């Protein structure tokens, strides 16, 4: 599914039991959990939900 290219929109997505928040039109995301939230720098700004999932999986390796 294409992500709406509007900075007022966001996507929350669960990957392997971990929830992530991504503000559209940005190349960042963060894990949703109480307290300090780990910030994730994505390789690029995703245009689709599948691309967001791939970028998050890539960022979480290692």
Write structural notes for this entry:
The structure is a single chain. By secondary structure, the protein is α+β, with helices and mostly antiparallel strands. The chain is 19% helix and 31% strand. The chain starts with 9 loop residues before the first strand and ends with a helix.
CA-based shape: globular
Please report the distance between the alpha carbons of the first and last residues: 27 Å
* Overall radius of gyration: 11 Å
| Proportion of residues in extended strands | 25-35%
Quick check: average pLDDT? 92
Give a brief description.
By secondary structure, this protein is an alpha+beta fold. It is built from 1 helix and 4 strands. The relative contact order is 0.26.
Give the arrangement of secondary structure elements.
Blueprint (H helix, E strand, L loop, with lengths): L9 E6 L2 E6 L4 E4 L7 E3 L7 H12 L2
Antiparallel strand pairs: 1-2, 2-3, 3-4
Defining traits:
alpha+beta, four-stranded antiparallel beta sheet, 19% helix
